[in-house]
Amino acid sequence: MSQPSFDFDDADVGIDDGGEPTYTVGELADAINGTLRRGFGDGVWVRGEIQGWNERGPHAYFRLVEEGEQGKAVVNVQFFAPARMRLRPLLAKNRLRLADGLKVRIFGHLDFFAGSGQLGLKMSGIDPRFTLGDLAMQRDEVLRRLVSSGMYDENRRRRLVAAPLRVGVVTSLDSAAWADFSHEIERSGIGFQLRVIDVRVQGEWAVSMITTALRSLGRTGDLDVLVLIRGGGARSELATFDDEQIALAIATSPIPVFTGLGHEIDRSIADEVAHTALKTPTACAAALVERVNAFAQRTELAWAAIERQVERAIGANEGRLQELALGIRHRTLGAVDRSDDRLRQRMQRLRVSVERVTERSSMRLDAAGAAVRRVPARLEPEVRHLDAVAQRVRLLDPVTTMARGWSITRTADGRTVRSADELTPGTEIVTTFASGAARSRVEEIHPS
Prior knowledge:
With 448 residues, the protein is an alpha/beta fold. Helices cover 48% and strands 20% of the residues.
């Protein structure tokens, strides 16, 4: 450290009198860092929420933030590659992945960086129990609210159809979860109808996208079941599915919701409120396939039972039908025999009756023949009388009379003229003779 001296007038206020050291910027940075090391020893533990996570190559940088009554407190953290490599097994063992929004308790050394003039913390350790405890506490609080509001068991009350073939799926289409699920569905050979909404399953937009997708599919009214799936991941990433918004979207869904979130150990809140929770997307698809196959098997067994019952009923009815047919045959033969007897009796009575009627008719016919033979003798006087009448009729016939010189006079309209008084001069008359007629006009009338 250099300490140059200058001569100034003692009257100048604020002029260094040479008793206080003067630092360069670099020397001041070193002095600050020395003081920090002496003050905080081997390092310091700090807790807060990660914000602004940023990876640059093998290094990571973020802000550790605390929201307090007097405002926000922030410290910049540098997480360099050597420390990241060393802590990676610890984070993997506890299934944690550092990201925005995660509350952590980290260990590091305070460092004043002269290049930016900022104080930062070089992270070298982390307490995973703190983060896991915080996640568990948040999870327990959400569960408590769901139970108290009655939403915890709401979706399990939804009726699941016997053969859920129309399936709505909420997942990331770029994920292995979707590949595993769709492969299992296709491998089953069952005609499932899938309607898929592509969402983010981690990160800033995951909660809102998943919630919106679940509610959108639930409103369609033409689906049998909803499926929410994602692949395995860090426990901190799966904390997305502990969010209360997603839990409420599942609980209030009018359709049963299946979850397959790809973690074998933990149950998320989404699993807790879902109708059916499976460990993996493949298991989720297998459960749907199994249910449809079980329905098909029950249907086949039911049809087989119906067939057996029908066969037994047909067999029993065939026996009864044969008995009835035999009874009908016997009764029919008896009825025919009785009818034959009655018919023979009636034919005999008819034969006797016909003979009697024929005999009586023959006798009447003989009597009628005798009467007919007596008719000519009885008709002879009547014939003579008719001849006389005919002779008189011929004598009275006008034609005969006119043949002797008489005629008949009629007016033009056909009225017979019996007296000259019926005519007037100029009247047209028609005179009919025994042979022919003459038309004339009256010239003069002579009274009788």
